[in-house]
């Protein structure tokens, strides 16, 4: 190696190191800026908030009524993967609506419904579903929606998920009195809290004819990936609410996607059906609760159909 080559090598190395440091500093600045923006725009829902509803004059529930309740984690209508384009999302939503209509439910609990998200090509899936039910199946449901995730930019995986505004949708064909979003405990710490779920209960109260009791419908989704502390806190909050309503003598139906066991539930007040992700008060007779072998091509998950009678 010549003397000139010996002098050139260290200079090139220094230049490479400087460029590497510049890149690292730039990435650090971008990450810091992203965390600041996400902190400033973090979704901070109140503990309880009323949800807008628009009743269509349905008949109210009454003792002796038979009810069919469908619960379905629709996975933002991506068909179990990433939605390739708008057409595929709309096609999957149409399939979800068609399968739902064939089962002819009185109540529908849907989880992971996008209202404005890059992953579902910014289609408002609630509006899309309601319109398909009306236009293609002549079904008018009263909708109620609650966000459980609202993030300006989710930076993972690769490529990033981006904007996500998603949540729980309950559709009913019975008269509804009110709807409320109730925040569940969140054990996530900063910065994971900024891009994660803000899990909640979507609670609807329906009047019951000739009775001072209510039919309380509870749509929920919890995170199977939560810490043991997070699961314990959420289970305690959910169980406390369910038992409080059952203790009042109300009819209680809770269903959705969750990983709790409810081992501490008072069996005289509540009945838990783990095969379908359903919890009901003891004044409701369950005829069947089963997962239907259909619909996974549209949602990546299969729906659960509960058939019951108010006693």
Which helices and strands occur, and which strands form pairs?
Blueprint: H1 3-40, E1 48-50, E2 66-73, H2 86-103, E3 107-114, H3 125-137, E4 142-154, E5 162-172, E6 178-183, H4 192-195, E7 200-207, E8 214-221, H5 228-247, E9 251-257, E10 270-273, E11 278-281, E12 284-291, H6 296-299, E13 304-310
Parallel strand pairs: 2-3, 8-9
Antiparallel strand pairs: 1-6, 2-13, 3-5, 4-5, 6-7, 7-8, 9-11, 10-11, 12-13
Helix pairs in contact: 2-3
Q: Can you put this structure into words, describing what you see?
A:
By secondary structure, the chain is α+β, with helices and mostly antiparallel strands. The chain has 2 domains: 1-40; 41-310, Deoxyribonuclease I, Chain A. The chain is built from 6 helices and 13 strands. It has helices at 3-40, 86-103, 125-137, 192-195, 228-247, 296-299; strands at residues 48-50, 66-73, 107-114, 142-154, 162-172, 178-183, 200-207, 214-221, 251-257, 270-273, 278-281, 284-291, 304-310. Strands 1-6-7-8-9-11-10 form a 7-stranded mixed sheet, covered by helices on one side. It has a 6-stranded mixed sheet with strand order 4-5-3-2-13-12, covered by helices on one side. Helix 2 (86-103) packs across helix 3. The longest helix has 38 residues, at 3-40. The protein is globular, with a radius of gyration of 24 Å. The termini are far apart. The relative contact order is 0.16. The model has no long low-confidence stretch (mean pLDDT 91).
């Amino acid at each position: 190696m010549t003397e000139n080559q010996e002098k050139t090598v260290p200079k090139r190395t220094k230049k490479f190191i400087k460029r590497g440091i510049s890149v690292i500093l730039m990435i650090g600045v971008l990450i810091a800026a992203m965390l600041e923006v996400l902190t400033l725009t973090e979704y901070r829902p109140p503990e309880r908030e009323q949800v807008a509803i628009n009743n269509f004059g349905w008949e109210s529930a009454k003792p002796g009524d038979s009810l069919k309740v469908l619960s379905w984690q629709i996975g933002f209508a991506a068909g179990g993967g990433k939605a390739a384009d708008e057409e595929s999302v709309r096609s999957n939503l149409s399939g979800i609506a068609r399968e739902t209509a064939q089962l002819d439910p009185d109540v529908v609990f849907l989880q992971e419904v996008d209202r404005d998200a890059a992953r579902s090509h910014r289609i408002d899936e609630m509006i899309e579903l309601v319109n398909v039910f009306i236009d293609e199946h002549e079904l008018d449901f009263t909708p109620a929606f609650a966000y459980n995730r609202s993030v300006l930019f989710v930076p993972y995986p690769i490529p990033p998920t981006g904007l996500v505004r998603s949540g729980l949708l309950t559709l009913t064909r019975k008269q509804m009195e009110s709807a409320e979003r109730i925040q569940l405990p969140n054990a996530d710490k900063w910065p994971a809290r900024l891009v994660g779920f803000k899990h909640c209960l979507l609670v609807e109260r329906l009047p019951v004819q000739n009775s001072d009791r209510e039919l309380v419908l509870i749509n929920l989704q919890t995170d199977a990936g939560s810490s043991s502390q997070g699961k314990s806190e959420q289970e305690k909050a959910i169980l406390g609410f369910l038992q409080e309503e059952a203790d009042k003598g109300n009819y209680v139906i809770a269903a959705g996607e969750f990983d709790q066991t409810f081992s501490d539930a008072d069996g005289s007040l509540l009945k838990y059906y783990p095969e379908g992700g359903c919890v009901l008060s003891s004044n409701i007779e369950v005829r069947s609760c089963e997962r239907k072998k259909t619909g996974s091509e549209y949602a990546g998950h299969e729906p659960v159909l509960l058939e019951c009678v108010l006693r």
